[in-house]
Amino acid sequence: MKAKQMMIDGQKIEILPTDKNIVDVTTRNKIPLPAPCYIAKRTKGCCNACAVEISGKQKFACTTSPEDGMNITINRDDLNLIRKERLKKYSEGIKNNSSCGCSCSDSDSKCC
Predict the structure, then answer these.
(1) Quick check: 99 pLDDT over 90?
(2) How are strands ordered across the β-sheet holding 71-73?
(3) Of 62, 73, 61, residue with least CA distance to 7
(4) What is the model's pLDDT at position 104?
(5) If you count Cβ atoms within 10 Å of the first and of the last residue's Cβ in the chain, which end, N or C, has fewer?
(6) Which backbone phi and psi does 72 adopt, to 5 degrees?
(7) Residue among 42, 62, 59, 43 nearest 51 (CA)
(8) Which residues contact 29 (CB under 8 A, 6 or more apart)?
(9) Is CATH 3.10.20.740 the right assignment for the domain spanning 5-95?
C-alpha cells in the first residue's frame, strides 16, 4: 500500500495515521508553524495563528486534517505577516486574561 503524502512548500511529506491535523505533520517534520492555542490545549483555532493556504484558500492548520495529495503553502510573505499579526493579538489577549487566551470577546462566536 502506497504511503499517503502531502506537499508543504514544495516538499513531499508523508502523512502518518497518528497525524490528526496539519500542525501534527509540521511539528513531526520540524517545519516552523505557530500554533500556540493547540500546543497549550486551548480551543482549537482560538489564536488563528496557524494560517496556511490550501488550494488557494486560507485554513487553520490545527483544525484541518491532512489528506493525501494536499498542497499546502506556509512560508510566504503574506501568510507570515498574517501569522505575526495574529500572534500579537493572541499575546495581548493572554495579557488581558481573555477567557480562551485570545483577543476575541466572550460574545464572539468565531472564538472559543
Answers:
(1) no
(2) 11-14, 5-8, 71-73, 51-54, 57-60
(3) 73
(4) 44
(5) N
(6) -115, 135
(7) 59
(8) 8, 13
(9) yes
SS (H, E, C) the chain: CCCCEEEECCEEEECCCCCCCHHHHHHHCCCCCCCHHHHCCCCCCCCCCCEEEECCEEEEHHHCCCCCCCEEECCCHHHHHHHHHHHHHHHHHHHCCCCCCCCCCCCCCCCC
Inform me whether the pLDDT recorded for 95 exceeds 80. Answer: no
Q: Which three cell numbers stand for residue 76?
A: 510566504
Instruction: Give the pLDDT band of residue 85 (cuts 50, 70, 90).
Output: very high
Query: Domain locations in the chain?
Result: 5-95
Q: Quickly tell me which residue has 501569522 as its cell.
A: 83
Q: Please tell me the pTM assigned to this model.
A: 0.79
Query: What average pLDDT does the segment 32-57 reach?
Result: 83
Give the pLDDT score at 111: 43
